[in-house]
Amino acid sequence: MSTATATLPRCPECDAHITFNRAPLRGQVTNCPGCAVELEVTDTEPLTFALAPKVEEDWGE
Amino acid sequence: MRLALLHTRLRTEETLLLDALTSRGHNVEVIDLRAEVFDPASPERWLGFDLVLDRCVSLTASLTATRILESMGVRCVNRADAIEVCSDKMRTTLALIRDGIPTPAVRIGIGAQAGLAAVESLGYPAVLKPTIGSWGRLLARVNDRDAAEAIVEHRETLGSTTQHVIYAQEHINKPGRDLRVFIVGGEAIAAIERASDHWVTNTARGARASGLIITDETSRLSRAAVHAVGADIAAVDLLECPTRGLLVNEVNHSMEFRNSISTSGVDIPARIADHLASLTLPVARVSNPCMPVARVCNPCDLRQSESELAEARR
After folding, report:
1. Looking at the complex, does the CB of residue A58 fall below 8 Å from at least one CB of chain B?
2. What's the 3-state SS for B246-278?
3. Which of A24, B119, B146, B270 makes the best surface tag, with the fewest CB within 10 Å?
4. Is a pLDDT exceeding 80 seen at residue B303?
5. ipTM metric
Protein backbone atom coordinates (compact mmCIF):
# COMPACT_ATOMS: atom_id res chain seq x y z
CA MET A 1 0.00 0.00 0.00
CA SER A 2 1.25 3.44 -0.80
CA THR A 3 -0.67 5.08 2.03
CA ALA A 4 1.41 7.47 4.08
CA THR A 5 2.51 6.04 7.42
CA ALA A 6 0.47 8.57 9.35
CA THR A 7 -2.77 7.24 7.84
CA LEU A 8 -1.92 3.54 8.09
CA PRO A 9 -4.27 1.54 10.27
CA ARG A 10 -3.04 0.60 13.69
CA CYS A 11 -3.17 -2.55 15.76
CA PRO A 12 -5.97 -2.33 18.33
CA GLU A 13 -3.72 -4.13 20.79
CA CYS A 14 -0.33 -2.36 20.59
CA ASP A 15 -0.95 0.55 18.20
CA ALA A 16 1.67 -0.58 15.68
CA HIS A 17 1.10 0.31 12.02
CA ILE A 18 -0.35 -2.53 9.94
CA THR A 19 0.63 -2.92 6.30
CA PHE A 20 -0.36 -5.38 3.58
CA ASN A 21 1.43 -6.67 0.50
CA ARG A 22 -1.85 -6.71 -1.44
CA ALA A 23 -5.17 -4.93 -1.11
CA PRO A 24 -6.68 -6.30 2.10
CA LEU A 25 -9.91 -8.28 2.00
CA ARG A 26 -12.65 -8.45 4.57
CA GLY A 27 -12.05 -11.54 6.70
CA GLN A 28 -8.33 -11.62 5.95
CA VAL A 29 -6.10 -12.57 8.83
CA THR A 30 -2.71 -11.01 9.46
CA ASN A 31 -0.21 -10.79 12.26
CA CYS A 32 0.64 -7.48 13.86
CA PRO A 33 4.34 -6.66 13.24
CA GLY A 34 4.50 -5.07 16.68
CA CYS A 35 2.98 -7.58 19.10
CA ALA A 36 2.36 -10.56 16.76
CA VAL A 37 -1.28 -10.76 17.76
CA GLU A 38 -3.55 -12.20 15.09
CA LEU A 39 -5.84 -9.59 13.54
CA GLU A 40 -8.79 -9.95 11.23
CA VAL A 41 -9.86 -7.30 8.74
CA THR A 42 -13.44 -6.39 9.68
CA ASP A 43 -13.90 -3.77 6.96
CA THR A 44 -11.92 -2.33 4.10
CA GLU A 45 -13.57 1.11 3.66
CA PRO A 46 -12.22 2.36 5.98
CA LEU A 47 -9.78 -0.34 6.98
CA THR A 48 -10.60 -1.67 10.42
CA PHE A 49 -9.38 -4.60 12.48
CA ALA A 50 -10.42 -6.75 15.38
CA LEU A 51 -8.59 -9.44 17.25
CA ALA A 52 -8.98 -12.65 15.22
CA PRO A 53 -11.11 -15.40 16.76
CA LYS A 54 -9.19 -17.93 18.80
CA VAL A 55 -8.62 -21.43 17.46
CA GLU A 56 -11.59 -23.68 18.01
CA GLU A 57 -11.78 -27.42 18.48
CA ASP A 58 -12.92 -28.18 14.93
CA TRP A 59 -10.34 -26.00 13.17
CA GLY A 60 -7.65 -27.51 11.04
CA GLU A 61 -6.77 -28.80 7.61
CA MET B 1 -15.37 -20.20 -14.70
CA ARG B 2 -17.57 -18.76 -11.96
CA LEU B 3 -16.46 -20.06 -8.60
CA ALA B 4 -17.44 -19.52 -4.98
CA LEU B 5 -14.61 -19.66 -2.48
CA LEU B 6 -16.04 -20.52 0.93
CA HIS B 7 -14.14 -19.54 4.04
CA THR B 8 -14.49 -18.73 7.70
CA ARG B 9 -11.26 -16.75 7.76
CA LEU B 10 -9.03 -15.70 4.90
CA ARG B 11 -5.62 -17.14 5.54
CA THR B 12 -2.60 -16.79 3.27
CA GLU B 13 -3.70 -19.92 1.41
CA GLU B 14 -7.08 -18.44 0.48
CA THR B 15 -5.59 -15.17 -0.75
CA LEU B 16 -3.03 -17.09 -2.83
CA LEU B 17 -5.81 -19.19 -4.34
CA LEU B 18 -7.89 -16.09 -5.00
CA ASP B 19 -4.98 -14.42 -6.78
CA ALA B 20 -4.23 -17.54 -8.82
CA LEU B 21 -7.86 -17.85 -9.91
CA THR B 22 -8.48 -14.20 -10.71
CA SER B 23 -5.18 -13.85 -12.59
CA ARG B 24 -6.47 -16.60 -14.89
CA GLY B 25 -9.60 -14.63 -15.61
CA HIS B 26 -11.97 -16.61 -13.41
CA ASN B 27 -14.83 -14.92 -11.67
CA VAL B 28 -14.48 -15.66 -7.96
CA GLU B 29 -16.92 -14.72 -5.24
CA VAL B 30 -15.35 -14.89 -1.80
CA ILE B 31 -18.02 -15.97 0.67
CA ASP B 32 -17.56 -15.73 4.43
CA LEU B 33 -19.84 -18.41 5.89
CA ARG B 34 -20.08 -16.54 9.17
CA ALA B 35 -22.35 -14.09 7.38
CA GLU B 36 -24.23 -16.56 5.21
CA VAL B 37 -27.80 -17.81 5.57
CA PHE B 38 -28.71 -20.89 3.54
CA ASP B 39 -32.21 -21.55 2.29
CA PRO B 40 -32.08 -25.21 1.24
CA ALA B 41 -35.27 -24.78 -0.79
CA SER B 42 -33.84 -21.92 -2.88
CA PRO B 43 -30.75 -23.05 -4.73
CA GLU B 44 -30.87 -20.36 -7.46
CA ARG B 45 -28.00 -18.27 -6.17
CA TRP B 46 -25.72 -21.26 -5.77
CA LEU B 47 -26.57 -22.89 -9.08
CA GLY B 48 -25.00 -19.87 -10.75
CA PHE B 49 -21.58 -21.16 -9.78
CA ASP B 50 -19.71 -23.70 -11.86
CA LEU B 51 -17.95 -24.86 -8.76
CA VAL B 52 -17.73 -24.22 -5.04
CA LEU B 53 -14.32 -24.48 -3.43
CA ASP B 54 -14.48 -25.17 0.29
CA ARG B 55 -11.62 -23.56 2.19
CA CYS B 56 -13.15 -23.24 5.64
CA VAL B 57 -10.81 -23.64 8.57
CA SER B 58 -13.84 -24.79 10.56
CA LEU B 59 -14.81 -28.39 9.91
CA THR B 60 -18.36 -27.73 11.09
CA ALA B 61 -18.74 -24.93 8.57
CA SER B 62 -17.23 -27.04 5.77
CA LEU B 63 -19.55 -29.96 6.35
CA THR B 64 -22.66 -27.87 6.87
CA ALA B 65 -22.14 -25.86 3.71
CA THR B 66 -21.10 -28.69 1.42
CA ARG B 67 -23.94 -30.93 2.60
CA ILE B 68 -26.49 -28.21 1.85
CA LEU B 69 -24.93 -27.24 -1.47
CA GLU B 70 -24.58 -30.80 -2.72
CA SER B 71 -28.23 -31.40 -1.89
CA MET B 72 -28.96 -28.52 -4.27
CA GLY B 73 -26.89 -30.16 -7.01
CA VAL B 74 -23.95 -27.79 -6.62
CA ARG B 75 -20.54 -29.26 -7.24
CA CYS B 76 -18.21 -28.83 -4.28
CA VAL B 77 -14.47 -29.45 -3.98
CA ASN B 78 -13.86 -31.35 -1.84
CA ARG B 79 -17.10 -33.24 -1.58
CA ALA B 80 -18.86 -33.47 1.77
CA ASP B 81 -18.34 -37.23 1.97
CA ALA B 82 -14.61 -36.81 1.45
CA ILE B 83 -14.41 -34.04 4.05
CA GLU B 84 -16.22 -36.25 6.52
CA VAL B 85 -13.84 -39.16 6.00
CA CYS B 86 -10.66 -37.07 6.01
CA SER B 87 -11.62 -35.11 9.10
CA ASP B 88 -12.28 -38.21 11.18
CA LYS B 89 -9.15 -40.26 11.85
CA MET B 90 -11.18 -43.37 12.53
CA ARG B 91 -13.05 -43.10 9.25
CA THR B 92 -9.81 -42.42 7.41
CA THR B 93 -8.36 -45.59 8.93
CA LEU B 94 -11.43 -47.58 7.85
CA ALA B 95 -11.15 -46.28 4.28
CA LEU B 96 -7.43 -47.04 4.08
CA ILE B 97 -7.90 -50.58 5.44
CA ARG B 98 -10.80 -51.18 3.04
CA ASP B 99 -8.54 -50.33 0.11
CA GLY B 100 -5.58 -52.30 1.41
CA ILE B 101 -3.41 -49.22 1.91
CA PRO B 102 -0.62 -49.62 4.49
CA THR B 103 -1.31 -47.57 7.60
CA PRO B 104 -0.25 -47.79 11.26
CA ALA B 105 -2.13 -50.35 13.34
CA VAL B 106 -5.05 -48.90 15.28
CA ARG B 107 -7.24 -50.04 18.17
CA ILE B 108 -10.45 -48.28 19.12
CA GLY B 109 -12.32 -48.51 22.40
CA ILE B 110 -15.43 -46.68 23.53
CA GLY B 111 -15.25 -45.42 27.09
CA ALA B 112 -12.52 -45.68 29.71
CA GLN B 113 -12.47 -49.44 30.22
CA ALA B 114 -12.46 -50.42 26.56
CA GLY B 115 -10.25 -47.46 25.72
CA LEU B 116 -7.56 -48.59 28.13
CA ALA B 117 -7.88 -52.17 26.89
CA ALA B 118 -7.44 -50.86 23.32
CA VAL B 119 -4.16 -49.20 24.25
CA GLU B 120 -2.96 -52.26 26.16
CA SER B 121 -3.71 -54.55 23.23
CA LEU B 122 -1.61 -52.34 21.00
CA GLY B 123 1.33 -52.19 23.40
CA TYR B 124 3.64 -49.35 24.32
CA PRO B 125 4.53 -46.81 23.23
CA ALA B 126 1.21 -45.91 21.63
CA VAL B 127 -0.20 -42.68 20.29
CA LEU B 128 -3.61 -41.46 21.44
CA LYS B 129 -5.39 -39.04 19.15
CA PRO B 130 -8.77 -37.38 19.17
CA THR B 131 -10.65 -38.78 16.17
CA ILE B 132 -11.44 -35.22 15.10
CA GLY B 133 -8.73 -32.64 15.43
CA SER B 134 -5.87 -31.16 13.51
CA TRP B 135 -2.51 -29.39 13.69
CA GLY B 136 -1.19 -31.99 16.10
CA ARG B 137 -3.42 -30.85 18.93
CA LEU B 138 -4.07 -33.18 21.86
CA LEU B 139 -1.81 -35.94 20.56
CA ALA B 140 -0.31 -38.00 23.34
CA ARG B 141 2.44 -40.58 23.17
CA VAL B 142 1.98 -42.92 26.09
CA ASN B 143 4.90 -45.07 27.14
CA ASP B 144 3.24 -47.14 29.85
CA ARG B 145 -0.04 -48.05 31.48
CA ASP B 146 0.17 -45.22 34.00
CA ALA B 147 0.30 -42.62 31.27
CA ALA B 148 -2.49 -44.33 29.32
CA GLU B 149 -4.73 -44.40 32.39
CA ALA B 150 -4.14 -40.69 32.94
CA ILE B 151 -5.01 -39.71 29.37
CA VAL B 152 -8.09 -41.94 29.25
CA GLU B 153 -9.33 -40.60 32.58
CA HIS B 154 -8.80 -36.99 31.51
CA ARG B 155 -10.69 -37.63 28.28
CA GLU B 156 -13.52 -39.32 30.16
CA THR B 157 -13.78 -36.56 32.74
CA LEU B 158 -12.96 -33.37 30.87
CA GLY B 159 -13.75 -34.09 27.25
CA SER B 160 -16.96 -34.03 25.25
CA THR B 161 -18.62 -37.36 24.53
CA THR B 162 -16.71 -37.67 21.25
CA GLN B 163 -13.53 -37.65 23.34
CA HIS B 164 -14.71 -40.85 24.99
CA VAL B 165 -13.81 -42.76 21.84
CA ILE B 166 -10.21 -43.78 22.41
CA TYR B 167 -8.34 -44.03 19.12
CA ALA B 168 -4.97 -45.60 19.81
CA GLN B 169 -2.42 -45.80 17.05
CA GLU B 170 0.77 -47.81 16.83
CA HIS B 171 3.77 -45.58 17.44
CA ILE B 172 6.02 -45.54 14.39
CA ASN B 173 9.70 -45.00 15.13
CA LYS B 174 10.13 -42.63 12.20
CA PRO B 175 13.49 -41.04 11.38
CA GLY B 176 12.72 -37.59 12.80
CA ARG B 177 10.50 -36.59 9.92
CA ASP B 178 7.32 -37.33 8.06
CA LEU B 179 6.50 -36.78 4.39
CA ARG B 180 3.67 -34.78 2.93
CA VAL B 181 2.51 -35.27 -0.65
CA PHE B 182 0.09 -32.84 -2.30
CA ILE B 183 -2.44 -34.47 -4.60
CA VAL B 184 -4.45 -32.40 -7.05
CA GLY B 185 -6.87 -34.11 -9.41
CA GLY B 186 -5.27 -37.51 -8.94
CA GLU B 187 -1.74 -36.25 -9.55
CA ALA B 188 1.07 -35.88 -7.03
CA ILE B 189 2.17 -32.32 -7.75
CA ALA B 190 4.51 -31.55 -4.85
CA ALA B 191 6.04 -33.01 -1.73
CA ILE B 192 7.83 -31.84 1.36
CA GLU B 193 9.37 -33.41 4.42
CA ARG B 194 8.67 -32.08 7.89
CA ALA B 195 11.50 -32.59 10.36
CA SER B 196 11.53 -32.07 14.09
CA ASP B 197 13.38 -33.21 17.18
CA HIS B 198 9.94 -33.72 18.72
CA TRP B 199 8.00 -36.88 17.87
CA VAL B 200 5.15 -34.67 16.57
CA THR B 201 6.19 -33.39 13.15
CA ASN B 202 3.40 -30.96 12.30
CA THR B 203 4.64 -27.58 11.07
CA ALA B 204 1.93 -26.09 13.32
CA ARG B 205 3.97 -27.58 16.17
CA GLY B 206 7.28 -26.17 14.95
CA ALA B 207 8.55 -28.77 12.49
CA ARG B 208 10.81 -27.50 9.69
CA ALA B 209 9.64 -28.04 6.11
CA SER B 210 11.93 -28.74 3.17
CA GLY B 211 11.47 -29.95 -0.39
CA LEU B 212 11.21 -33.62 -1.30
CA ILE B 213 11.48 -35.42 -4.61
CA ILE B 214 8.35 -37.40 -5.43
CA THR B 215 9.15 -41.06 -5.99
CA ASP B 216 6.97 -43.61 -7.74
CA GLU B 217 6.17 -45.14 -4.37
CA THR B 218 5.19 -41.91 -2.59
CA SER B 219 3.12 -40.90 -5.59
CA ARG B 220 1.34 -44.23 -5.93
CA LEU B 221 0.63 -44.59 -2.24
CA SER B 222 -0.58 -41.00 -1.81
CA ARG B 223 -2.84 -41.15 -4.85
CA ALA B 224 -4.32 -44.39 -3.60
CA ALA B 225 -4.97 -42.85 -0.20
CA VAL B 226 -6.72 -39.83 -1.68
CA HIS B 227 -8.78 -42.14 -3.87
CA ALA B 228 -9.73 -44.19 -0.81
CA VAL B 229 -11.17 -41.18 0.99
CA GLY B 230 -12.86 -39.86 -2.15
CA ALA B 231 -11.06 -36.50 -2.20
CA ASP B 232 -10.04 -34.49 -5.22
CA ILE B 233 -7.52 -32.11 -3.63
CA ALA B 234 -5.72 -33.25 -0.50
CA ALA B 235 -2.40 -33.62 1.27
CA VAL B 236 -1.28 -37.04 2.42
CA ASP B 237 0.99 -37.50 5.43
CA LEU B 238 3.29 -40.51 5.19
CA LEU B 239 5.38 -42.13 7.91
CA GLU B 240 8.54 -44.10 7.21
CA CYS B 241 8.39 -47.26 9.25
CA PRO B 242 11.82 -48.95 9.68
CA THR B 243 10.28 -52.40 9.16
CA ARG B 244 7.20 -51.91 6.98
CA GLY B 245 8.17 -49.01 4.74
CA LEU B 246 5.84 -46.15 3.96
CA LEU B 247 2.56 -45.94 5.86
CA VAL B 248 -0.28 -43.49 5.29
CA ASN B 249 -0.95 -41.57 8.48
CA GLU B 250 -3.53 -38.97 7.51
CA VAL B 251 -5.24 -37.34 4.55
CA ASN B 252 -5.97 -33.62 4.86
CA HIS B 253 -8.93 -32.29 2.89
CA SER B 254 -8.26 -28.57 3.33
CA MET B 255 -4.51 -28.52 3.10
CA GLU B 256 -2.33 -25.63 4.08
CA PHE B 257 0.50 -24.94 1.68
CA ARG B 258 1.93 -21.48 2.34
CA ASN B 259 5.25 -22.94 3.52
CA SER B 260 5.32 -25.63 0.85
CA ILE B 261 5.49 -23.43 -2.26
CA SER B 262 9.08 -22.24 -1.93
CA THR B 263 10.23 -25.48 -0.30
CA SER B 264 8.78 -27.72 -3.01
CA GLY B 265 9.38 -25.26 -5.85
CA VAL B 266 5.82 -25.84 -7.06
CA ASP B 267 3.24 -23.10 -7.47
CA ILE B 268 0.59 -25.08 -5.61
CA PRO B 269 -2.24 -22.50 -5.83
CA ALA B 270 -1.66 -22.20 -9.57
CA ARG B 271 -1.91 -25.97 -9.97
CA ILE B 272 -5.12 -26.01 -7.95
CA ALA B 273 -6.59 -23.16 -10.00
CA ASP B 274 -5.77 -24.93 -13.27
CA HIS B 275 -7.25 -28.16 -11.99
CA LEU B 276 -10.47 -26.49 -10.85
CA ALA B 277 -10.85 -24.88 -14.26
CA SER B 278 -10.39 -28.27 -15.91
CA LEU B 279 -13.28 -29.66 -13.85
CA THR B 280 -15.70 -27.24 -15.45
CA LEU B 281 -14.90 -28.33 -19.01
CA PRO B 282 -17.88 -30.46 -20.12
CA VAL B 283 -15.90 -33.39 -21.52
CA ALA B 284 -13.29 -33.33 -18.78
CA ARG B 285 -15.99 -33.47 -16.15
CA VAL B 286 -17.14 -36.86 -17.34
CA SER B 287 -13.92 -38.38 -18.58
CA ASN B 288 -11.20 -37.17 -16.24
CA PRO B 289 -9.43 -40.38 -15.16
CA CYS B 290 -8.11 -38.62 -12.08
CA MET B 291 -11.60 -38.36 -10.59
CA PRO B 292 -12.04 -40.61 -7.60
CA VAL B 293 -14.50 -43.37 -8.30
CA ALA B 294 -16.55 -42.29 -5.29
CA ARG B 295 -17.48 -39.06 -7.08
CA VAL B 296 -19.60 -40.99 -9.52
CA CYS B 297 -21.61 -42.39 -6.64
CA ASN B 298 -22.85 -38.94 -5.68
CA PRO B 299 -26.35 -38.53 -7.10
CA CYS B 300 -25.62 -34.87 -7.74
CA ASP B 301 -22.63 -35.82 -9.85
CA LEU B 302 -24.65 -38.38 -11.73
CA ARG B 303 -27.19 -35.74 -12.63
CA GLN B 304 -24.41 -33.46 -13.77
CA SER B 305 -22.69 -36.21 -15.69
CA GLU B 306 -25.80 -37.17 -17.61
CA SER B 307 -26.46 -33.63 -18.73
CA GLU B 308 -22.80 -33.15 -19.56
CA LEU B 309 -22.73 -36.33 -21.58
CA ALA B 310 -25.71 -35.14 -23.56
CA GLU B 311 -24.07 -31.79 -24.06
CA ALA B 312 -20.77 -33.37 -25.08
CA ARG B 313 -22.52 -35.60 -27.64
CA ARG B 314 -24.17 -32.63 -29.33
Report:
1. yes
2. EEEEEEECCCCCCCCHHHHCCCHHHHHHHHHHH
3. B146
4. no
5. 0.81
